[in-house]
Predict the 3D structure of the following.
Amino acid sequence: MLEEFLNNNTILVAMGLVIPIIGCVIGAATVYMIKSDSNSPSQKLMLGFAAGVMLAAIIWSLMQPAMEMAAEKDSIPWLSPTIGFLVGMGFLLLLDTITPHLHISSDSVEGLPSSLKRSTMLILAITIHHIPEGMAIGVVLSGAMEGGDMITGATAIALSLGMALQNIPEGAVVSAPLNSMGMSKFKSFLWGSATGLVQPISALITMLLIDGTMPIFPAILAFAGGAMLYVIVEEIIPEGQSGKHSNIATIGVALGFAIMMILDGTL
């Protein structure tokens, strides 16, 4: 029944794009309940959870299908996924280098010099996080719409659910700091929720750009995986491990990874 329901491409795309936003809205709403403290156990747990979900999504929703598809199509099966992965990492490195942004646990601004407000640069940092996540959703939705065996509608929904889960902590870790910078709770909630719109927008752009590119689909899947891994290694894990309660972040990684693994295996 579920498989037949997800075979409708319109329903599949709508669900795949909307589900992650719900997670971001829920996370942003925690500004009414949680105080901003980058070293608090709850913040560390949420950051670790987000990293765990993303890491599992990279493995089972992106890299594994990329390797399996390449093994069927290419004479050198590891080549296109490897190139795509490295280019994806390089793309996020470039984006991270040129975009002025501010991390939650840091007072120093990264990227090109800018006179933007600190709150704006914090929003840009979360935006950078959401771009590769949206790309991953778009790539997997495109693969599911092609009707192949490697990527199904259930795979796409599992990824979107995983993104929704990791968007809860990401929504929380942007709305609470915005509130601590002097923004009202309502505006902090709105901005925290609005950052989630980056995902469906980047997903749709990705779907349009890769239309008709099935011969290089393994490289595109790996590109999204590399871009997401850059965010995990460069941003989320260092923030979770800095200061006190780093062991709580590690527990969060394990929980997030396990939940995403269950989602991928169940759907």
In short: The first strand starts at residue 101 and ends at 102. The mean pLDDT is 85. The beta strands are 101-102, 109-110. The CA atoms of residues 91 and 227 lie 7 Å apart.
